[in-house]
Amino acid sequence: MELVIQDVVKTFDDKVILDEASFQFEKGKIYGLLGRNGAGKTTLFNCISKDLSIDSGTIQLEEDMETHDFSDLDVGLVHATPTLPDFMTGYEFIKFFIDMNKEKMPNVRTPDEYLAKVGIKKEDRHRLLKDYSHGMKNKVQMIATMMVQPPVLLLDEPLTSFDVVAAHEMKELILSIKKDSVVIFSTHILQLAQDLCDEIVVLHKGKLTGFDPTKIHTNSFEADIVAMLSDEEGKSQDAVVEVIGESDDE
């Protein structure tokens, strides 16, 4: 299975965000989507998930050499800023999510098992979500999305709010789902991209460009990516791609 993006155009007023962008993302691989601030990474994700309409072009799935449209239910999108119901507890939300989606879930487990999988402690599972930290909300949002194993999984800036242990747990979770899904995540953290990605895709000036996968683990990786994100004059000091560790905040 492949997610095929073909000549996609998206504009806001007079600003072109996606300019005939094209790329094919394969199931079984984890793709890192890199780009400068404002390049359109979140916009691209919202177009794939059908939260935004595109002006022209196509976004389809290809299976057995045939392309076809898909529904928004085939896409799991984990937002950088979690959107969860504040009036529910973590346990209640996961239980509700299971009840609503159990027919689509390959292996249904208990809410406690899912919450434990992302490191939500027993004493926190019956607290209101409004009292969760940003990192805890991100964990709940991520496990809820992954529970249904969607054909396409989009992660917008994952792991940046997790401590070292939680980030490791999330990495293992992401790796476990890639065999059944097309996985794409956007990040500014080059070390994270190197750790997790099979391939890197750069979004720059509205275009999607693949990066040579044989160079992901070389010493020149950072310089090569920054060069791809530089402006016409070759100046790269404003390129918002950093080699930094995961955040210590949860």
TrEMBL record:
Keywords attached to this entry: ATP-binding, Nucleotide-binding, Transport
Domain of life: Bacteria
Keyword Ribosomal protein belongs to the record: no
CDD domains hit by this protein: ABC_DR_subfamily_A
Transmembrane segments: none
InterPro entries: AAA+_ATPase (IPR003593), ABC_transporter-like_ATP-bd (IPR003439), ABC_transporter-like_CS (IPR017871), ABC_Transporter_VariousFunc (IPR051782), P-loop_NTPase (IPR027417)
Pfam families linked: ABC_tran (PF00005)
Full protein name: Bacitracin transport ATP-binding protein BcrA
Occurrences of domain ABC transporter (ranges): 3-230
Sample GO molecular function, one term: ATP binding
Record has Transport as a keyword: yes
